[in-house]
Amino acid sequence: MLFLDEVLRGAELEAWKQGFVLMVGVGRDDPDRSTVRDMAGRVDGLMVLATSVPDDVLARLARRIPVVVLSGPPRGDHYDHVTVSNAEAMAELTRHVLSQVGKGRLAFLAGPADSPDGLQRWEGSRPR
Q: Rounded to two decimals, what is the model's pTM?
C-alpha cells in the first residue's frame, strides 16, 4: 500500500471517530487553485500536500479554516504538520534490501524535483 494511502486511511478513520467525514479532492491542472479555494468554503478543515498550494493561497485559507500540511518539514509557519523521518526510513529500507541481495548497485528513482521529501530520501539511501 502506498504511503499516501495509509495517511488518508488513518485520517479517514480518525475523522469518522470524531464525527466528521473526510473529503479528498485533487486539484491537478488547476493553476489558479480555484478548486482548493472553492472546497475551503465547504469544509471544516483542509489537509494539503506541501508545496501543492502557493503560500499566499494557503495563508488566506488558514485565516478561515484549520490547515494541516502533509509532507516536508515545517517551515516556520503556523500550520499543523504531518511528517515522517524520510532519511532514517530510507536508510533502513536500503539496509534491508542490501541484506537480502548482498552487494550490488541500487537505483534511486526520485519523484518530482520539487518534492519536499525527495532530498531527505536520497540522503538516506546513500551507503554509510
A: 0.69
DSSP assignment string, 88-103: HHHHHHHHHHHHHH-S
Q: Which three cell numbers stand for residue 94?
A: 536500503
Burial class (CB in 10 A: 0-12, 13-18, 19+), 27: middle
Residue 14 class from Cβ within 10 Å (0-12 exposed, 13-18 middle, 19+ buried)?
Answer: exposed
Give residue limits of the domains in the chain.
Answer: 3-82, 86-125
* Residue 86 near residue 76, CB atoms below 8 Å: no
In this structure, are strands 80-82 and 67-70 parallel, antiparallel, or unpaired? parallel
**Secondary structure (3-state) at 76:** coil
- Take residue 125 and report the three cell numbers written for it: 539511501
Helix (H, G, I), strand (E, B) or coil at 80: strand
Tens digit of each residue's pLDDT (9 = 90 or more) over 53-103? 888 888 888 888 888 888 877 777 788 888 889 899 999 999 999 899 887
Question: What are the tens digits of pLDDT across the range 14-51?
Answer: 989 999 888 777 656 666 667 777 776 788 888 888 77
